[in-house]
Amino acid sequence: MAHVPAEQRRQQLVAAAFRVVAREGVAAASTRRIAHEAKVPPAVVHYCFHSVEELIDALMAAVFADVAEAAAVALRASGAVEHSLRTALRRLWGSYRDDPAGHQAVVELVAHALRRPAATMIVREHQCVLGTLAEQFLADLAVRNKTTWRSPTRVLSRFLISTVDGVLLNWLIDRDDAETEAALEWLAITLAAEAV
């Protein structure tokens, strides 16, 4: 086997772990399964990570960074309040439709982390990043449209993230596009009504 720098090998193993989790779930993410997916001997996994949990933590950090990056792109003010909200919500949902297995893996990784006190901070930091992005989006929207919000943006941003999470989780379960579009439309109208 050709020598590969440790950091590059770690990234290769994280990518392999993601494919395993997206296809088979967190429970399938064993050293042997990930090594097989990465086409390396199991010893390589142990060389790069002290444990499978450390590899899963690295996977969570990478996946949550990707989710935050996608959210940052989606949550951009682009005109009137309702239009911007509707556009942002469609962008967020679009990433789910493009990669449902990847987003199902995110849901599993969150649930997995909440059962491990050492990993709970990774999830909390991720939620904090998403909350900050949503709060900044709402603040930018208010400035751009010379308006204010009836409720504090920290409350509205939490409502926005929590509702989107629930609607998109429902979509992962039932794949009902029409109901999801209706729910996101309601959310855009409801939040826009908070602008004064």
UniProtKB/TrEMBL annotation:
Residues 30-49 bind DNA. The keyword Amino-acid biosynthesis does not apply. PROSITE patterns: HTH_TETR_2. Keywords: DNA-binding. InterPro entries: Homeodomain-like_sf, HTH-type_TetR-like_transc_reg, HTH_TetR, Tet_transcr_reg_TetR-rel_C_sf. Residues 7-67 form the HTH tetR-type domain. The keyword Cytoplasm does not apply. This is AcrR family transcriptional regulator. The lineage of its organism: Bacteria, Bacillati, Actinomycetota, Actinomycetes, Pseudonocardiales.
